[in-house]
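Minutes, project check-in
Item: structure for the 181-residue chain
Input as provided by the requester:
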Amino acid sequence: MATERKREQVALLEERLGRASITIGIDYRGLSVKDMQQLRRGIRAEAPETELRVIKNTLWRRASEGAGEPGAADLAQEATAMLFGFGDLTEAPRALQKYIREERLELPIHGVYVEGELQDGSQVGALADVPSRPELMAKVAGGLSSPISGLAGVLSAVFRDVAAIVEARAEQLESAESGAE
């Protein structure tokens, strides 16, 4: 029979899994408590909309079943910490990769659960390399503004040329009228 505390933990994990845009299973063996605290702080500094939790595998499996995400159960293997990303899909992987690189850590990644699918741990690197949503929006806007400004320049030149032709013709007609008089 599950204790009240375990039921609360399962409910908390269900909520986190349901709300997370990405969940990453990390093998934390070899890290001290101090190292785990630094890992949490380092990731949160880069990606404030994340949460790193050490979980019990059996509770995680129950939570993933309860949340209707049975595929996420396979993230829990041996000593597992779950990194939940609640914001941009690439934010948590980018923060994790940056911290691992800067601290020169060897943290095996069990897998990534995103959009209802369990992916291989190698996908963290691929997701970390994808530009964030604001960066992509800026690139799209920059790509669109260049042709638009070019079009505006061309249209401006056409109108200027038409105006010059009309003005020249008006002068020509005026001089023809004054010469006829």
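Outcome recorded: The two ends are 114 Å apart (CA to CA).
No further action items on this chain.
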